[in-house]
Amino acid sequence: MLHVTGIDLNPDSREEHLPGYTPNFPHIASLVQGARYFGGKASWHWHESVELFYVRKGAILYRTPHCEHVMRAGSGGMVNSNVLHRTQSLKNGTALRLHLFEAELLAGVPGGTVQQRYITPLVQRPGLELLALSPEVPGQAAALDLLRQSLYLDEDAFGYELRLQALLSEVWL
Predict the structure, then answer these.
(1) Quick check: pTM over 0.70?
(2) In which region does residue 40 sit, left (phi positive, over 0), alpha (psi from -120 to 50) or beta (all else)?
(3) What own/partner pairs with CB < 8 Å and gap ≥ 24 does 153-159 have?
């Protein structure tokens, strides 16, 4: 779990550099603690990776060019691939965990059925910038629980990558 205190941006494009991200396993998990993260704010940035996040405590505002959502403890969501976004902690002590990963990590076979039926339609859906999940919405509570579980896996345990891939696939569905 990477403890994030800021983001490293390409000054020309605003693309975020993702430390520890490798082609062999295109994924990183991060812990973001609001006050320690540029004074509670992350400036406008984007990344090719999908971002799945879970708010552990406090509240955070997620903004994209066309929408914004206040996310409270127990909620979470997804920022789609290549979407410009920024965040702002709204409460002292806000903390969230997140996954940044290439959606193809879930596809198995590049260009195969899983990618065609489940991955591509979501990441290429026009207008889908931010998907907010609330524990009060039927069906979303289960997805949030799976997301939370995926963020607490032991990264050093044998089989971590397979367990993570399975949990993220369930969240995706």
Answers:
(1) yes
(2) left
(3) 155/1, 155/29
Query: Strands across the sheet with 68-72, in order?
Result: 41-45, 85-89, 59-63, 68-72
Q: Which of 12-21, 82-91, 159-168 has the lowest mean pLDDT?
A: 12-21
How far is the C-alpha of 86 from the C-alpha of 42, rounded, in Å?
5
pLDDT tens track for 46-99: 999 999 999 999 999 999 999 999 999 999 999 999 999 999 999 888 999 999
Tell me which residue of 42, 71, 34 sits closest to 54, measured CA to CA: 71
CB 52 within 8 A of CB 106: no
Return the structure tokens found at 123.
């990441």
